[in-house]
UniProtKB/TrEMBL annotation:
Alphabetic keyword roster: Aminopeptidase, Hydrolase, Metal-binding, Metalloprotease, Protease, Zinc
Enzyme class at the top of the EC tree: hydrolase
GO molecular function: metalloaminopeptidase activity; zinc ion binding
PANTHER family, alphabetized: ASPARTYL AMINOPEPTIDASE
EC number in record: 3.4.11.21
Pfam families the record matches: Peptidase_M18 (PF02127)
Gene Ontology annotations of biological process type: proteolysis
Annotated segments matching region Disordered: 194-231
Protein name, as recorded: aspartyl aminopeptidase
CDD domains in the cross-refs: M18_DAP
Alphabetical list of InterPro entries matching this protein: Peptidase_M18, Peptidase_M18_dom2
Recorded superkingdom: Eukaryota
Catalytic activity: Release of an N-terminal aspartate or glutamate from a peptide, with a preference for aspartate
Length: 499
């Protein structure tokens, strides 16, 4: 009998996504979840030999946009298996350019560049704001990171009225027609005038529709040398002021920032019976959240690690949407170096066996968790007739003969046994032979590590849109599936031997 799914995990996911407009915010939220579950923070630059002990729970970050967490079984020995779930924290978005100050025809505009393969037409006519991380100079002269999320609409990318261009297919230039407007030049001039005690500019003044209203600070002999122009010169000063206010600092203390745009409309449930999720960034914050909560749940009891001989691990990477080939991406040395260090834990002063790392990888397993495609009833012909995943029918195993996904039969046997113990349903998906297929972190990590790997994810519609759709009940199914995988992997690994 299939387990009856709870709606609460889906509502918790909504809260997580609403508070996580960027990978930095997502990692920060997951850190709080792990800390509440008594996970201890460690750092790559430190030695772990005297810190990481059997029965312990730990996490570390890289670039504050990638996070890895693990729990060590009390019966762990060097070279034992590691049960892993990998996902990613990033989503397609628009990123503020290093020099973003633009204006035209009386409008203030902000220059942006595309990140990932988004459905960019869905970003038009949405109430947008900005979020990200800001590097600021504190009173001690140190440079520190602050997370920023402006919670009100300040930006919008306007479409052209149908009366002016009756396009049969909506098309636009991403470099010249995807810039958001941030207000009117006249309004900003009037605001500045009021602050300076000057008579406000009339809307019909020539200064209201042209000229550079952001005043550059004149340099003097006492002005410190700066290799780059200040943020208030590279960006609209008001834009920087709003960011600084959210960071709790003065605009002059802002040294640089990485800001992206996000839709201010909150994630919510939808459908006639509230069975759906209407949300941004389901791909792939949903799988990141499900894997993190599964790890936390699997070690919630005092005895959960007593008889465990493996390590339970999640690794949530940034930059999957742009190929993962960065220091904090899945194609970096982050996971391999952590696994190498974990594989020899417990040896103390003993001389490490040169094969402990390889032994551990050979007996480990990685679930690559990335959202999957639900059947779209308006485009049913785009799907392979016998493989049409549905929302709220369980997590989808993704298979591709050309290794765009890393799934194979032994992996399906293992995940099916984990699902059987959790009493959660599973589905199968392949793309049509005449259709292209996306890929995940699964193939690159399985090739780099030689570890058995399986690709799966919950079904969703409108992948890479600014507003996606998923199933409310699938959230609970995925958490239960990953939790069962962590709890039963040591037993299952010994029963499924394929070398």
């Amino acid at each position: 009998m299939v387990m009856e799914a709870s709606t609460q995990p889906g509502h918790d996911l909504i809260s997580f996504i609403n508070s996580s407009p960027t990978p930095y915010h997502a990692v920060d939220s997951i850190k709080h979840q792990l800390t509440r579950a008594a996970f201890e923070e460690i750092r790559e630059r430190d030695a772990w030999g005297s810190t990481c002990k059997p029965g312990g729970k730990y996490y570390l970050t890289r670039n504050t946009s990638t996070i890895l967490a693990f729990a060590i079984g009390k019966k762990w020995q060097a070279g034992n298996p590691i049960a892993m779930v990998g996902a990613h924290t990033d989503s397609p978005t628009l990123r503020v350019k290093p020099i973003s100050k633009k204006q035209g025809d009386g409008f203030i505009q902000v220059g942006v560049e595309t990140y990932g393969g988004g459905l960019w037409h869905t970003w038009f006519d949405r109430d947008l704001s900005t979020a990200g991380r800001v590097m600021v100079r504190n009173i001690e002269g140190r440079f520190v990171q602050k997370l920023v999320k402006i919670d009100r609409p300040i930006l919008r990318i306007p479409t052209l009225a149908v009366h002016l261009d009756r396009q049969e297919t909506f098309s636009f230039n991403k470099e010249s027609q995807l810039f958001p407007i941030a207000g009117l030049v006249a309004a900003e001039l009037n605001r500045q005038a009021k602050e300076e005690g000057i008579r406000p500019t009339r809307p019909d003044s020539p200064w209201a529709t042209g000229g550079n209203f952001d005043k550059a600070t004149p340099e003097s002999e006492d002005t410190p040398f700066s290799p780059l122009k200040a943020p208030t010169e590279r960006h609209h000063s008001r834009f920087v002021e709003l960011i600084a206010r959210e960071a709790g600092v003065k605009a002059s203390d802002v040294v640089d920032f990485e800001m992206v745009l996000y839709d201010t409309q909150k994630s919510c449930t939808g459908g006639l019976n509230d069975e759906l999720l209407f949300s941004a960034r389901l791909d792939n914050l949903e799988m990141s959240y499900c894997s993190a909560m599964a790890l936390v749940n699997s070690v919630a009891s005092q005895s959960s690690l007593e008889n465990e001989s493996a390590i339970r691990l999640i690794s949530l990477f940034d930059h999957e949407e742009i190929g993962s080939n960065t220091a904090q991406g899945a194609d970096s040395n982050f996971l391999p170096t952590v696994l190498r260090r974990l594989s020899v834990l417990g040896l103390g002063d003993k001389q490490p066996n040169n094969t402990y790392y390889e032994q551990s990888l050979a007996s480990s397993f990685l679930i690559s968790a990335d959202m999957a495609h639900s059947i779209n009833p308006n485009y049913s012909g785009k799907y392979e007739p016998d493989h049409k995943p549905e929302m709220n029918k369980g997590t989808v195993i993704k298979i591709n003969a050309n290794a765009r996904y890393a799934t194979n039969s032994p992996g399906i046997v293992l995940i099916q046994e984990a699902a059987r113990r959790a009493k959660v349903p599973l589905q199968l998906f392949v793309v049509r032979n005449d259709s292209s297929c996306g890929s995940t972190i699964g193939p690159m990590l399985s090739a780099a590590l030689g570890t058995r790997t399986l690709d799966l994810g919950n079904a969703q519609l409108s992948m890479h849109s600014i507003r996606e759709t998923g199933g409310l009940y699938d959230v609970d199914y995925a958490i239960k599936l990953f939790e069962s995988f962590f709890e039963h992997y040591s037993e299952l690994e010994a029963r499924i031997l394929i070398d």
